[in-house]
Amino acid sequence: MAVISLKNKKQKASLVLAELKALYPEIVRHLKANNPWELLIATILSAQCTDARVNQVTPFLFERWKTPSKMGKADLTELEKSIYSLGFYLNKAKNIQECSRLLESNFNSQVPKTLEELITLPGVGRKTASVVLWNAYGINAGIAIDTHVARISWRLGLTSSQEPIKAERELMLILPQKEWGVYNHRMVSFGRDVCTARSPKCLKCSMQNFCVKNGVV
């Protein structure tokens, strides 16, 4: 695989951003939430699960436990049953309950506005923190590297690896910080519609002229 200079990667990144904006001019919020706390809980639950499935569960969840305080005091078995269909429900139930407790005790029941504080909460890593900060507060503190962002950035030749930490570090060097949040959102939509994991629609892709097609057979 040919080595691409940082300057050329920045130029390609500009092309990618322009194409994504043309394809998805409106930002679609994939997880339904009414406030930062609901968004945080929904994002934790979305790990290794589809957003659509999470959106089926959270209306009941937030109607039953309306605040961090109430979720923190919930019966754990009942909480587990309410999210059973999302997979990994035992760990997720513990995480969202302990997360809610810590929000109440350490942050006055408010979702913090820094990545450093967010990642101290159970079930919250850099990806979750970045998603929450941008969607809830419009803060670009990092680039959320989910499966779509990792796969497509590598296919395009913007990154040398699909490993989240390395991919994020490389993307932060070539994408303007103001674009970090929208990059994730638009890449998720693009990954679902065009650049799918299996059988990507390369012939219909507006980026085919400058995509190196890493990993595409």
TrEMBL record:
<dbReference type="GO" id="GO:0140078">
    <property type="term" value="F:class I DNA-(apurinic or apyrimidinic site) endonuclease activity"/>
</dbReference>
<keyword id="KW-0326">Glycosidase</keyword>
<dbReference type="Pfam" id="PF00730">
    <property type="entry name" value="HhH-GPD"/>
</dbReference>
<feature type="binding site">
    <location>
        <position position="205"/>
    </location>
    <ligand>
        <name>[4Fe-4S] cluster</name>
    </ligand>
</feature>
<keyword id="KW-0255">Endonuclease</keyword>
<dbReference type="GO" id="GO:0051539">
    <property type="term" value="F:4 iron, 4 sulfur cluster binding"/>
</dbReference>
<dbReference type="InterPro" id="IPR004036">
    <property type="entry name" value="Endonuclease-III-like_CS2"/>
</dbReference>
<dbReference type="GO" id="GO:0003677">
    <property type="term" value="F:DNA binding"/>
</dbReference>
<comment type="function">
    <text>DNA repair enzyme that has both DNA N-glycosylase activity and AP-lyase activity. The DNA N-glycosylase activity releases various damaged pyrimidines from DNA by cleaving the N-glycosidic bond, leaving an AP (apurinic/apyrimidinic) site. The AP-lyase activity cleaves the phosphodiester bond 3' to the AP site by a beta-elimination, leaving a 3'-terminal unsaturated sugar and a product with a terminal 5'-phosphate.</text>
</comment>
<keyword id="KW-0456">Lyase</keyword>
<feature type="binding site">
    <location>
        <position position="211"/>
    </location>
    <ligand>
        <name>[4Fe-4S] cluster</name>
    </ligand>
</feature>
<keyword id="KW-0540">Nuclease</keyword>
<keyword id="KW-0411">Iron-sulfur</keyword>
<dbReference type="InterPro" id="IPR003265">
    <property type="entry name" value="HhH-GPD_domain"/>
</dbReference>
<dbReference type="InterPro" id="IPR004035">
    <property type="entry name" value="Endouclease-III_FeS-bd_BS"/>
</dbReference>
<dbReference type="Pfam" id="PF10576">
    <property type="entry name" value="EndIII_4Fe-2S"/>
</dbReference>
<dbReference type="InterPro" id="IPR011257">
    <property type="entry name" value="DNA_glycosylase"/>
</dbReference>
<dbReference type="GO" id="GO:0019104">
    <property type="term" value="F:DNA N-glycosylase activity"/>
</dbReference>
<protein>
    <recommendedName>
        <fullName>Endonuclease III</fullName>
        <ecNumber>4.2.99.18</ecNumber>
    </recommendedName>
</protein>
<dbReference type="InterPro" id="IPR023170">
    <property type="entry name" value="HhH_base_excis_C"/>
</dbReference>
<dbReference type="InterPro" id="IPR000445">
    <property type="entry name" value="HhH_motif"/>
</dbReference>
<keyword id="KW-0004">4Fe-4S</keyword>
<keyword id="KW-0408">Iron</keyword>
<keyword id="KW-0479">Metal-binding</keyword>
<dbReference type="InterPro" id="IPR003651">
    <property type="entry name" value="Endonuclease3_FeS-loop_motif"/>
</dbReference>
<dbReference type="GO" id="GO:0046872">
    <property type="term" value="F:metal ion binding"/>
</dbReference>
<feature type="domain" description="HhH-GPD">
    <location>
        <begin position="45"/>
        <end position="193"/>
    </location>
</feature>
<keyword id="KW-0378">Hydrolase</keyword>
<dbReference type="Pfam" id="PF00633">
    <property type="entry name" value="HHH"/>
</dbReference>
<dbReference type="InterPro" id="IPR005759">
    <property type="entry name" value="Nth"/>
</dbReference>
<feature type="binding site">
    <location>
        <position position="195"/>
    </location>
    <ligand>
        <name>[4Fe-4S] cluster</name>
    </ligand>
</feature>
<keyword id="KW-0227">DNA damage</keyword>
<comment type="similarity">
    <text>Belongs to the Nth/MutY family.</text>
</comment>
<feature type="binding site">
    <location>
        <position position="202"/>
    </location>
    <ligand>
        <name>[4Fe-4S] cluster</name>
    </ligand>
</feature>
<dbReference type="GO" id="GO:0006285">
    <property type="term" value="P:base-excision repair, AP site formation"/>
</dbReference>
<keyword id="KW-0238">DNA-binding</keyword>
<keyword id="KW-0234">DNA repair</keyword>
